[in-house]
Amino acid sequence: MGRQRGGGSRKGRSSGGVRSGAARSGGAGVPVAGVHEIDTGTCELEPDPFDSNGWVLRINGEPSSHIDLAEPRALSFDYMRWIAELVYSQWDPSSAESSPRMLHLGGGACTLARAFGAVYPQARQVVVELDGRLAVLVREWFDLPRAPLLRIRVGEARAVTETLTENSRDLVIRDVFADHSTPLPLTTVEFAAHVRRVLSPGGIYVVNCGDTADLRGAREEAATIGERFEHTAVIADPATLGGKRRGNIILAGSDVPLGNSPRLASRLLGGGTQAHVWQDAQVRRFAGSVRARRDPAGA
Question: Which pTM was predicted?
Answer without folding.
Answer: 0.90
